[in-house]
Design goal:
mainly alpha; Ferritin; 5 helices
Length: about 140
């Protein structure tokens, strides 16, 4: 079970860092695509905020202890924070790369949950993967 706790905690940390990055991009995006990107980044951070809470609460439900401070998040996350100098296309690329990395890691969480027979956690992960894979597809085509 400890392996699942660690895997979920990593995702809680990832969601916290991604939420902050998406907010940064939402606030600082400029240029001719300002309106659609501003709205899309908000849509993404709203979704990530819901997932952040859902994964942390799931961890609590199964006896784990989610990390709940910035120092802890930054120690566990797989993601990089925004640098503050990204141009709009770079912002899209960073978000795309983050969703791709999270999809890989979520598949690992799914495997652990399935091995433990934890269907509820598996369901949470599958729903998240489904959404992220759609984002990956759309962001990929945005950059073409």
């Amino acid at each position: 079970m400890e392996k699942l706790y660690q895997a979920l905690n990593k995702q809680v940390s990832n969601f916290s860092v991604l939420f902050t990055k998406l907010h940064h991009f939402h606030w600082y995006v400029t240029g001719p695509n300002f309106y659609p990107l501003h709205a899309k980044f908000e849509e993404f951070y709203d979704e990530v905020n819901e997932l952040y809470d859902a994964f942390a609460e799931r961890l609590l439900m199964i006896g784990g202890h989610p990390v709940s401070n910035q120092k802890g998040y930054l120690a566990l996350t797989s993601l990089k924070e925004a640098s503050g100098t990204e141009k709009p296309e770079e912002m899209i690329k960073h978000v795309l790369d983050d969703f791709k990395l999270l999809a890989v890691e979520l598949k690992e969480v799914l495997k652990i949950a399935e091995e433990l027979g934890d269907e509820v956690t598996a369901d949470l992960v599958i729903g998240t993967l489904s959404s992220f894979e759609k984002h990956i597809w759309m962001l990929t085509f945005t950059l073409k």
